[in-house]
Please model this.
Amino acid sequence: MKIIGTGSAMPSLAVTNEMLSEILDTSDEWITTRTGIKQRRILSEDTLTALAVSASQRALESAGLIAQDLDYIVCSNVVNNFVTPSLSCILQGEIGAGCPSIDLNAACTGFIYALDIAESFIKTGRAENILVICAEQPSRMVNWKERNTCVLFGDGAAAVIVSKGDAFKGFHITTQSKIEPLYYQRKLEFNPYVSQADGDAPLIMNGKDVFKLAVSSSVSDIRNVLEKSKTTADDIKYFLLHQANIRIIESVRDFTKQPDEKFPHNIEKYGNTSSASIPILLDELHKANKLEKGDLLVFSAFGAGFTTGACVLEWTI
Ligand code: UT7
Model:
């Protein structure tokens, strides 16, 4: 499998730390030093579907394909307005594709999980061109009065088109069933006198536990995929890590003993956009001509579950 196109789309509303300081007991200083985030984009007038459509169309254009060329759509998404049908079904119609589509929820690790599934379809000859799209709106899961969580997240969508090739050198994905550190629970109580559930509970997170799990799992996943692909950290041009906290990125960087410039980040502009964070960063690097044919890249992510994943690939565009 290889990546042949990228695209992303972000909501127009930027919410700065200063804006949050007006409604919460927080400050730009606290958020910046503890997380690296300066602002995040929040869906207000735009919809998640519209973002997903734009990101997908941009990825198709970048790949030089049309929607009818797609054989499969894999959409990583945690929440959207519809429980069913899936976001990928809605997207399939909106972009004019004719292929099957599925959603998957591996939380912030969704991009790596989606790529892993896409690779299986391509390897077995079941598909030639696949749209992998990550579309996320964590802003709808957090309690905007809860400063521990709401300052961290932002909305966004990004896509890649993958096709036949041998650019992916090694994958490693894991699940450890650990709910407590990070979860979002839907209210599904049975009550025959009420017509529908009256809202979900907000996202619950133990930041310190997630932080520790994030660093240890990312380090071990990266080691694993470097070994699998018979490469060393020195061979890697860029490590694209899930954009959750700049301190997590720096801790992983220290373990790999690699220079800071190998760890690009955009968390300062977008916050944590869940599974969309790595493909948004990838699209930015691609559009800024920072990727050259033959560059080796590592993707590494972690998320609720606890799920983790990493892969090594060669840039071939
Ligand atoms: O995709 C996965 C998503 N989640 C993550 O990646 C989260 C990983 N964890 C983290 O990023 C960090 O643990 C946080 C940024 C969430 C928190 O940083 P921390 O250094 O672990 O801070 P803390 O939770 O120990 O809080 C320190 C203090 C507390 O006050 P006290 O108890 O020391 O008086 C918090 O109440 O900072 C307080 N605090 C805040 N203060 C101002 C927590 N949030 C805020 C805030 N503004 N937004």
